[in-house]
Structure prediction request, 213 residues.
Amino acid sequence: MARPRGRPAKENRSRDILAAALAVFAEKGFAAARLDDIAARAEVSKGTLYLYFDSKEALFEALVRAAVLPNLERLEGLVTAWNGSSAALLRQMLGVLTGVLREGRITAFPKLIIAEATTFPHLARLYREQVAERGLKLIAGVMERGVASGEFRPVDPTAAARLFIAPVLFIAIWRVTFAQFDDRKLDEAALLATHADLLIRGLLAHPPPEAAR
Prediction:
C-alpha cells in the first residue's frame, strides 16, 4: 500500500503502529495483547516497534494522545468560540460526539478501561485525568453558563455533565459488547438526538409551550 505523500516515513510508521495497537487492544484486551501481535499487525519487526514505543503502556498513552485528545480539543475549541445559546451548544457538542462514535474502534477505549482498571489502575487513572475529568469539566462549564444566564434552571453542573455524557458511554459499551447479539441495530444518532431533546427540555428554565403541557 502506498504511503501518503508529504508525510515523513517516521510519522507514517508511528501512525501504523498505533493503528495496529488499537486494533489488537480492541480484539484481545490490553492484558492479553502482545507486542509481537501489534508488530505483526503493523507489518514491522518487534525491534522496529521498540524504536517508537518501549511498552504496551507507552502505546496506550500515545493512543490516548493521538486518537482521543484531538476530539476533546475540538470540543474545547467549539465551546471557546461559541456565541449562541447554551442549549444549542450542547446539541452541537452531541453532534460532534455522534461523529466520533462513527469512527469505530475508538469506542474500544471505555471497554478497555473498564476491563483493565483493576489490573492496570494507572491506565484508568491516566484516562480519567487526561480525558474524563477534562471533558466533564468542559461540559459542566456549559451547564454553569446556562444557569448563570438564566437559560437553564439551577442544577448541579457536575451531575448534569455526567448525565450528558452517559449515553455516549452506553453506545460505546453496547457496540463492543452486545451489538453482535442484537437483532435490531442500535440507531445511535436517534438515541443521542432523543437524549439531547429530553435533557435540554429538563434544563431549560422556560421550556417551550409544548413541553410544558
